[in-house]
Amino acid sequence: MTAPQSPTRVLVLNSGSSSLKYQLLDMRDSSRLAVGLVERIGEATSRLVHTPLEGGGERRERTGPIADHDAALKAVSEELTQDGLGLDSPALAAIGHRVVHGGLKFHAPTVITEEVIAEVERLVPVAPLHNPANITGIRTARALRPDLPQVAVFDTAFHTTMPEAAARYAIDVETADAHRIRRYGFHGTSHAYVSRATAALLGKDPSEVNVIVLHLGNGASASAVAGGRCVETSMGLTPLEGLVMGTRSGDIDPAVTFHLKRVAGMSTDEIDALLNKKSGLVGLCGDNDMREIRRRIDEGDERARLAFDIYVHRLKKYIGAYYAVLGRVDAVAFTAGVGENAAPVREAALAGLEEMGLVVDAGLNAARSDAARLISPEYARVAVAVVPTDEELEIARQTFELVTGDVKKGVPDSPTA
């Protein structure tokens, strides 16, 4: 009699305040069986888009009110069941949840318990926009499949290896500790995936490679990864710090906030909205789409040119700083929407850095491809790579390894954030 096959599928959930993104993967070959999105949850115009990928199924879409995340996940389950991929399938090994903020308590993927949820709730003050939505998704999924292992994979986890000299801000220690103020970093699943994929592209083990990873999307962050461990990252207590982004300012003199309050009479909420939603590229030129900015530059638009120059200047400054932090750099990897698709950004960010061994081959840089690839010439001392990120696969991989391997389950022992 043939023994039953062990479950190999992982459902990855990314819960936003009014959205639910999902992917179902088979970890035998990392293939995607289905992908989808529920958006505008809680509105009359809710929309579910579902695409079954196994067997060449057709994309399906439905609109109409979806009251809450519970209803959204049930609707997703119905779509998956229609394709023979339902949440009640014995082939489903686990559900992996993206959780934005894990503080210092969680430095690895963690099997979700009530104690874990309580700790994630305790971190809401430092992630008020993200952690509540993540918790909602977790509670909804646990209610639907209470028997199934569910795993939290934290955006901040990859950055918990930063030394204190990089993670601490130079403010009063007692005040910082009392309010959990330090650099946590974000986009950690992307930085983990891309740094490892870059090492593979070079034919080396991650422990042998020092990489500067540039995750450039509407949100943008940089990291310095030494031998597979993050030693510095650009985002801080929140995702506002660091690079110029689509709508976020990135680095700014903190006294600007005092000035706006005292001189402009702006409230804390107004300043928060200004720096997070009305700054960055959109604040500089009115657009946060790099394709549109480049089109405007080609037509001679000076505001678009200045926005691009400021964006690149900040990016180049971080590349140089992280080169100094690492001491030796084997590769610089560009990823995410802008990093993977905007050849002019890659070219401009590394222009003038030839003495540091950073050179881009114009032809390779201009060529379009969805594959991980090198865009530096063979003689270059430092490899320059374009590596498409895959945060869902990274979450699925970490989830599957935890529930099927020998990785320690539960809350890791570490300082409390």
TrEMBL record:
InterPro entries named among the record's database cross-references: Ac/propionate_kinase, Aliphatic_acid_kin_short-chain, Aliphatic_acid_kinase_CS, ATPase_NBD
Single GO MF descriptor: acetate kinase activity
Transition state stabilizer, annotated site positions: 187, 248
Pfam families: Acetate_kinase
Pathway(s) of this molecule: Metabolic intermediate biosynthesis; acetyl-CoA biosynthesis; acetyl-CoA from acetate: step 1/2
Cofactor: how bound: Mg(2+). Can also accept Mn(2+).
Main location: cytoplasm
Keyword Nucleotide-binding: yes
Enzyme Commission no: 2.7.2.1
Segments traversing the membrane: none
Catalytic machinery residues: 155
Keyword Nucleotide-binding: yes
Protein name: Acetate kinase
Gene: ackA
